[in-house]
Structure prediction request, 811 residues.
Amino acid sequence: MLNIYDGIEDVGQLIEHMAHGFAYCRMQYENGRPCDFTYLMVNPAFERITGLNGVVGKKVTEVIPGIWESNPELFEIYGRVTATSKPESFESYLPDLSIWLAVTVYSPKEGHFVATFENITERNNSKIALQKSSLLLNAIQHLSKVGGWEFDVASSTATWTEELYRLHDLPVDLDIDHVTESLKCYRPEDRTIISNAFKNAVEKGESYDLEFPMTTFNGRSLWVRTTCQPIFENGKVVRLIGNLIDITERKQAEAELHLAAIAFESQEGMMITDANNVIMRVNYAFTQITGYTAEEAIGQTPKLLKSGRHDAEFYKEMWNAIGTTGQWQGEVWDRHKNGDIYPKWLTISAVKDKNGKVTNYIGSHIDITERKANEDEIHRLAFYDSLTELPNRRLLQDRLFHAMSSSDRNGQNCALLFIDLDHFKIVNDSLGHIRGDQLLQRVADRLKSCVRQGDTVARLGGDEFVIMLEGLDGQAMHAASEAEYIGQKILVTLGQPYRLGTSELINTPSIGITLFSGHQQIPNDLFKQADIAMYQAKSEGRNTLRFFDPKVQLAINSRVTLEGELRSAIECHQFFLHYQLQVDQENRPFGAEALIRWVHPKRNMVSPGEFIPIAEETGLILPIGKWVLDTACAQLSAWQLDPQTRDLILSVNVSAKQFLNKGFAAQVKEIVQRHGINPAKLKLELTESILLNDLESIISTMNDISKIGVRFSLDDFGTGYSSLQYLKRLPLHQLKIDQSFVRDLLVDNHDRAIVNTIIAMAQSMNLDVIAEGVETEEQRQLLETSGCLHFQGYLFGKPMPINEFNEQLKQ
Prediction:
């Protein structure tokens, strides 16, 4: 470099024409330490490069504020230049001027510096942009897991990007033979393929695109795709460029998709719908199970398969479960395309996106028709007798337990009937086991015809059968009667002849019965009791039934005896009518109620409460009721001949079974006509319980009878089934207040309120009202005050024979 003091004028001319910027400065000190520079000389190029003018004589900080803050290393550089007298070059950025300068500094003497400047802003900006681009490319490659490489053919050297090093799990810029080292990551058979492809690319200019599994230098397993593209110059390959792509996730997805495709075409019927339940895809198994082709199903909804066996609540619970847990599975019934209904096991899963929104539903269908059939067969073998198809002991015990629990809740009685065929061994020995089995099957069929719906007929084995009756009356005596009735029916039914092939035989049963209620006894004890009762029946001659409880047996015997005597009473005319007076508010007689009485030849008077229920159960109430009606009408005919009694009205009770019997209306008309009575003097009393039957038929019968003038009274009103709905439709003339409300009328406010309500109801409907069971004057007065003007009870007279009744009228 020229000495600044030698030939300064010539040097000045040289500096003046320099292309580089030139500045001559002097160091400024403060407290013995450098703090700034003062410009002593600059050339035009300096002003052109920096854009600074008039800087001579000024400090650098005046011209370029903040230069020391943005370039703190400058004082160190100038210090070294001063100390060594050697020039130094460096790059400096001037933020206020937004330029990069290449600076060379020399110190010609202590405290003075000469500096030349070159504007390298454009070069540095390009460099920075290139660095940014390189960083961006590396980032993109890293995110996409793509590593790039370049191979120079002439030098046989390769260059890798940073991501390519990372894909191999190697340090960046490791000095290696890239081609050779990278081949180590592949299987031997794949190395040959890659080497040949690389060779053909160099020698023949052939590109390639290959996929292989790879193991990195850290032992990590990948799937990669390697590509190569030759670059030609003058028709020759000069270099190769390519990339290596990590396709592990894609391969995994393909494998999973392949597995899913295999699974989708499994033996299970598969259906995929969109979020709106529109079918998008079905598999072959689906078409086989449902009968619908893919073309027929796609675009429809699963309602296409709806069988109608499940209600809206079933589907509501299903979709609630799917919405809550994302899936549901269970047994459903669907309809095949041909209309057949079949069972299937259905699993529904919701598919959601990353935001948790449902995008699809996947349903798998398994036809379980065969499985259900197998289950039914297993159930049949486990719980049913193979010969008769009746429940076996196991199922009977299960039902017995449930019957005991049900009886606990509802208070009803149940019964076990143990049935054993008489002399069955003789049938087997004489006709053979085939005929014996046929007989058992016929017996099973006949037993089923003898019981009610809900009862159980079971076979324990051999010729032993058991019947369980549920829902019998809560009172033991009535329950025993119901069980005895069915037992007698079984005796009659099984006692009919059997035709077995060419043979005809009669085989009778012996029956043992035991009653039970709740869990008071254990099942095994009940079986023993019924078995003991059955042996009692056998010991007493067979073809009969016996109860285990001696008291019940005695009562049943008594009932059977009473039934027989009741039949004799009808034939021997042992019934009589008694009459109880009915009066108005002035104590004037206006009618009477006819009440049946049975004078037994040995037991004297038998209470109606004792024999009427038996007559109802056996049907004997029909001839008895007809006799009562005929006798009452005969008495009315006699009264019509006497001026004192011709205006009396006679009330006759009619049972539900009697009234509901076909031909009752015709019977009434015939009796009224035959006796020639005024039909308006006959009043038929019906109880409210009759209205639980066929109401339309009852109304029709009442209207038919009312047409001839016969009147109707509703007895025991208010005790159970009172309803304005039927009262306004019935051709009634009178409501009868039951004696249960009259008995405590003076002391029970509830009874008083009920009586007042009945009276008000009758008045509003223009019906007469009469109170029965009046025994005191106070009761009569309170009833009269409430609006009841007709009375019947011991206060006016007890029921009495006709002679005594006529004498009472005369008095």
Q: What stands out?
A: Residues 1-8 have pLDDT under 50 and may be disordered. Residues 261 and 743 are 86 Å apart (CA to CA).
